[in-house]
Amino acid sequence: xxxxxxxxxxxxxxxxxxxxxxxxxxxxxxxxxxxxxxxxxxxxxxxxxxxxxxxxxxxxxxxxxxxxxxxxxxxxxxxxxxxxxxxxxxxxxxxxxxxxxxxxxxxxxxxxxxxxxxxxxxxxxxxxxxxxxxxxxxxxxxxxxxxxxxxxxxxxxxxxxxxxxxxxxxxxxxxxxxxxxxxxxxxxxxxxxxxxxxxxxxxxxxxxxxxxxxxxxxxxxxxxxxxxxxxxxxxxxxxxxxxxxxxxxxxxxxxxxxxxxxxxxxxxxxxxxxxxxxxxxxxxxxxxxxxxxxxxxxxxxxxxxxxxxxxxxxxxxxxxxxxxxxxxxxxxxxxxxxxxxxxxxxxxxxxxxxxxxxxxxxxxxxxxxxxx
Length: 372
Prior knowledge:
Layout: H1 3-19, E1 30-46, E2 51-69, E3 75-83, E4 101-111, E5 114-120, H2 124-129, E6 170-175, E7 182-191, E8 209-222, E9 225-237, E10 246-257, E11 260-270, E12 286-297, E13 300-311, E14 315-329, E15 332-345, H3 352-355, E16 360-371
Antiparallel strand pairs: 1-2, 1-16, 2-3, 3-4, 4-5, 5-6, 6-7, 7-8, 8-9, 9-10, 10-11, 11-12, 12-13, 13-14, 14-15, 15-16
């Protein structure tokens, strides 16, 4: 473990020890506990490769916290989230990166000047651009993208539909208050690593250092229509001198009217993490876009989505599908996703000779989710 990460851990522990006993006489601590459990199956079928099978999956997360407000109006608190890892997931969704791990652990202070977090938590980029309307199956960030033959090219760089970010790396994060609909955020992670959770192993890029994120988010309404937009820029130093630095731009937006919500996310990872001296015929920039629409009426929900991404001279990927959900009771929801994907593999792609140049497949997922 690096000296930088150890220093950030020590600072987080020290701040937590300082804040814990400090509860003004007229203030009381507010405790909260919540959790989510998901289970189900993912069925994949790649006809040309003769590959069809079902794989079970499971995920969970339990979040606890304590918060107190001083007489001066400053809020102090701490949050701990233990679970199976939410690497590459939307902020409210568990993943299956670990059997048990520390997904989040941080302390924070908030007031009229904004909010500061210190520890292992989401960065400014994810907070500003995580806008897609997701049902229980997760659609583009769901478990179906975990399969090796199904994964979009961007999945090896970070979140498959939103580009590369710091994920749950230990960091310091600041966000401004929302003024006239606008909020900005900044975060810094000495390394893209987390204690108690493996956020390095799932991806091909070695863990970067000096991971900076800057982002802005705007919310407003126009009569009965609510809208939101987010923009983020991330930069990190490559782990090795022979690799390109990480630079990612993400743009997201969404509209809500009644039970209808539509959203879009576009990202450009450039040549993040690729060898500097690769041949002209080697892999190029990675970029992608996801469009998604959801309609919810009482306990029922329907999502339609389309995703396209590519790594130049390697893979061009398309996927589209639908998601259905039904809230059986207040704390239990079941979901079904049906997806069709296609890929065009360049001659330089290592899978091109074994699985054909234009593989196509189908995916179905069944999910049951319990929240408390």
